[in-house]
Design brief:
Distance between the termini: 140 Å
Number of strands: 0
Subcellular location: Cell membrane; Membrane
Largest sheet: none
Number of helices: 6
Helix content: 55-70%
Family: Belongs to the TatB family.
Shape: elongated
GO molecular function, one term: protein transmembrane transporter activity
GO biological process, one term: protein transport by the Tat complex
Radius of gyration: 51 Å
Structural class: mainly alpha
Membrane topology: Single-pass membrane protein
Length: about 150
Amino acid sequence: MIDLGISKLALIGAVALIVIGPEKLPRVARTVGMLLGKAQRYVNDVKSEVNRSMDLDELRKMKDTVQDAARDVEQSIHSGASDFEKQFSESGQTLSALAEPEPVPFPEYKHPRKNWRLKQGATPQWYKSRNGVRTKALSGAARVARFRPHKIN
């Protein structure tokens, strides 16, 4: 690569000042700087594209190895299943008989409030009526009417 030191840059600047002139030198320097910046961005883009393509190649290789491993596992499972089927066909049993297990009997449904008297300790209705326990609330007028003596005609 080109080795540019301070002395060489000063020599290039002096020649450019003499050839181009002092009034056009700033515009030319700005244009040269923009072109160098574009060149650097282009080189960086090319480098990143090369790195991406290398990474993509590595990913493709990894994908191929994973697919090969998956195929090997699938083949081993199929061979094991075929061996299993052969073993059971030789013994005279069918796979459908093994696949359907006997149904497990579930306990019968029991309503949770079946023995509510026992659970709540409720007093039976016949006991309340025999001993005169009030089971229903009566208003004052209903109570007076109930206990008023009846006229005999």
